[in-house]
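Quick check before the chapter quiz. The format below is the same one you will see on the exam, so make sure you can read both the input and the output lines.
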Amino acid sequence: MTHIGIVGTGAWATTLGILLARTANKTILWSRSEARANELETARVNDRYVPGVEFPDQMSISGSIDESVANADLVIIAVPSVTIRENIQQIKSAISTTSRIVCATKGIEIETGKRMSQVISEELPELDPRHIGVLSGPNLAPEIAAGNPATATVAFPGLQMAKDVQAVLSSDVFRVYRSDDAIGVEFGGALKNIVAIGAAFIDGVGLGANTKASFVTRGLHEITRLGVAMGARPDTFAGLSGMGDLIATCYSTLSRNYRLGLGIASGKDLPSVLSELGQTAEGAPTTQAAVKLAKKLGIEMPIADVTHAVLFEGASPEEAIRELMGRMLQPEVRY
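Here is the expected output.
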């Protein structure tokens, strides 16, 4: 039996725990709050984030780092990007030099522009970076928790490690592909949330299917351009962690980032919408991080720029689209 330790008790952490416990893995979620851990362990359901789905017998919740992480065959990190560094600092004493870590958090650190796996590696300097991978794809948590078929990509710097972890994560309802382009897989999963917010702006103000299709397509090009500048392969963005995740997030009301965009388009401000969501919407901090990183690298990201203007600078969705339509004419493909 494989022991999987999961850091986090939010929607995605809980869903992964349920998914992996259903295939007879010993799955232990770690909560920073002992009280929350006891509450979830007693209830055997996470009604706050995954309502109505009972925990399998092989899944448990613990406030003990040693119980959940120390002896795990695989550790999955599934916490908000803005807290990932703090969480890794708390569990680092339980991570051995042979641990295998999969980061399921999608985001970029605002202050440094670092990917989540880079933050993990920085906080765990004694762990071989080749033991740190990422998981991403079109993974709307409520559908997976309900047992609907889904796919994802797991990426490590080395394909053998990716192959080993792929076998652990895969099941008859969760087909996992492998890759050695961890940079591309990670950037695709993080940056698509920016585009999803903007796509919801378009739906919210009724600009139509043509406008949305154009926005999403150009968004994919923009994501790819930044990813390639950071060392990713362009073909990765045509895969599950790029196009696949982008489509799911831009076209489903199950997506928190899409719902965030709809809320903004209805005239509400960002704090109000985030409060109503009651869950992390990674697209907001990722927009800040991406705009900052693109400027540092001299990369044009007009969609990220106008999304930032709407979220943080008081621009309207209509003004954002006018800004994009009025840009200087240029070739369609530029990497």
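If your answer matched, good. The mean pLDDT is 96.
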